[in-house]
Amino acid sequence: MDNASPEPSYSAWMLAEMRRRKWRQADFARAAGLDVSMVSRWLHGRRPDPASLERVAVALGVDLDTLLTLAGHRSPTPRDDEPRTATLVAKVRQVNWTAERFLIVDALLDDLRQRSPRVPIEQAALPGLDDG
Question: Which residues, 6+ apart, have CB-to-CB distance to 83 below 8 Å?
Answer without folding.
Answer: 13, 66
